[in-house]
Amino acid sequence: MTYLEFHLAFILPPLLLLLLLGRPRPPRLWAYLLMPLIALLYTTPWDNYLVWRGVWGYPEGRVLLRLGYVPLEEYLFFVLQPLLTGAFLLRIAGPPPPPGPGVFRVLGGGGFLLLTALGVLLLALGGKALYLGLILAYFAPVFLLQWAFGGDLLWGWRRALLLGVGLPTLYLWLADLYAIRTGIWWIAPEYTLGPKAFGLPLEEMAFFLATNLAVVQGLLLAWHPEALRRLR
């Protein structure tokens, strides 16, 4: 199976099904359509660096062409994943709930500040800690800003947050495991710590969790009227 066929088999069918079951409508449509562009712009330099360093890669014959160090299908994935996760979130989010206690802005921001520091430390160590360090150092600051700005809003929407992150992440873990086992892409063992779940490296699990968390939290904040009032 090629990387493009992976999209056709694992990403497009559930995405199209979710969109058929409930097409996104204003006022949530604009954020849903903008999120893939944000994800693509934010992940492109990070992804190119990982491939350049040899943290992960793609065998010849599994991709169509490369733009920079990254295959075209990889850029397509960073567009399709937010669309898939966002389409599922549209089905379960419901109306915006009242904000939770304001202390969650402090607790969430503080927790992700510590994760950011851990990521920087792992980057400094390098070697087998490199991949996890790159994930934490690059994505934890995003979560820090999201929770410092609207942690009380995310706590109020915690059911949608947990389901919206958890189920798409579990699905993508299974798809990723298939892709690694069939050789669509590979992960370098010299840049991973070693622990695996059913053959899936810890870092790959953290990657899909982090990217889905960024998408879901970003959409929930964009959809909450209180967040828009704070921006004004």
What is the number of helical segments per DSSP (H or I, 4+ residues)? 8
In the predicted model, the low-confidence regions spanning at least 5 consecutive residues are none
What's the helix-strand series?
Answer: HHEEEHHHHEEEHH
Instruction: Indicate the percent of residues in helices.
Output: over 70%
Record field, number of beta strands: 6
**What sort of overall outline do the alpha carbons produce when their principal axes are compared?**
globular
- SS strand fraction: 5-15%
Q: For the largest sheet, list the strands in their spatial order.
A: 1-4
Q: Indicate how many domains the architecture comprises.
A: 1
Taking all Cα atoms into account, the compactness measure Rg is 18 Å
Mean pLDDT: 96
Terminal CA distance: 49 Å
Largest sheet: 2 strands, antiparallel
Structural class: mainly alpha
